[in-house]
Amino acid sequence: MIDPMDRVIRDTLADQPQPRLSAGFAAGVMGRIDRRERKREFVRGAGVVLGVYWAAVLAFSGFLLAGVKWPAWFPLSLVALTPCVFLAAVAPRRLFLRLARALSPSPR
Amino acid sequence: MDDEKLIARFLETGDRAMFAALVERYQDRVFRLVVSVLGPGSAADAEEVCQEVFLRVYRKVCQFTGEAAFGTWLYRIAYNLAIDWRRRARFRLPHVSVDKVPGLAGASDPLGDVLTKEKKAQVARALEGLPDLYRSVVHMHYWLDRPVGEIAELLNIPEGTVKSYLFRARSALRAVLGRSFGSAAGEKTSS
């Protein structure tokens, strides 16, 4: 027994082109993964640098507000750190990547 | 190397070549599954969805417990993403009349062509009205010419269930088209 609906459906869909996956699909996926991972590492690296900077700023403010005499090296270190942060912000992202990789040994 | 070993090596070493091997191993099947959900004329969208599938798998592969086969887990993600995409696309894309789908255009005999074109348009509309799972099975079987065994594997259901879905899909189409198609599609004939 052949269901006539079988032929009707087959005839209707026979005109539709057979879809094909493009040749470089796997490379495209891996490229997107690489870009996404680089972005994640960049954000993580930038976060670490900014975190350190803001921690120093908060500590400095704390010393100021508490009226405690801070160690002599403290303002100097903050002054030294400030250009580093601005330099890092305009530096190639490779700097952040290296920093992030050094801080997180996990590949993922 | 089997899937579980590839995943274990990938998680251990972070070597993306391992993941690339998985992508190459499964890309065609995932694509067929996705395109069967999205339907004809959606190859570009299907490729986009497939990329999303593998990106999601890359992010979540550490959550893969190995209780089911990797393929089963992957196909489930692909099917769900494709269904989501299809539902969103319904609101995102402008409606294109079935009559304007190039594959449905006729040629030489004007009257015959008009009738054929109209019938095909009716079938295409009826197919669009099927439940997601039935439509996907019908597309895989009749359009992509996939064997029942492969459809069963992609949807993680027994082969008997695939046949049952095909039967029910044909019955549903017959119920919708029976009146306009008359006896040709309305009842079974012997070959």
Would you kindly provide a written description of the structure presented here, covering whatever features stand out?
The complex is a heterodimer of chains A (108) and B (191). Chain A is mainly α. Chain A is 76% helix and 0% strand. Chain A has a domain at 52-103. Chain A contains 4 helices and no strands. In chain A, helix 2 (25-66) runs antiparallel to helix 3 (73-90). The mean pLDDT of chain A is 78. By secondary structure, chain B is mainly alpha-helical. Chain B has 2 domains: 3-92, RNA polymerase sigma factor, region 2, helix turn helix motif (Rna Polymerase Sigma Factor, Chain: A, Orthogonal Bundle), CATH 1.10.1740; 98-186, Arc Repressor Mutant, subunit A (Orthogonal Bundle). Helices cover 74% and strands 0% of the residues of chain B. Chain B contains 9 helices and no strands. In chain B, helix 2 (16-38) crosses helix 4 (70-92) and helix 6 (132-143) crosses helix 8 (159-181). The longest helix of chain B is centred in the first third of the chain and has 23 residues, at 16-38. The radius of gyration of chain B is 20 Å and the shape is elongated. The interface between A and B is large, with 32 and 50 residues.
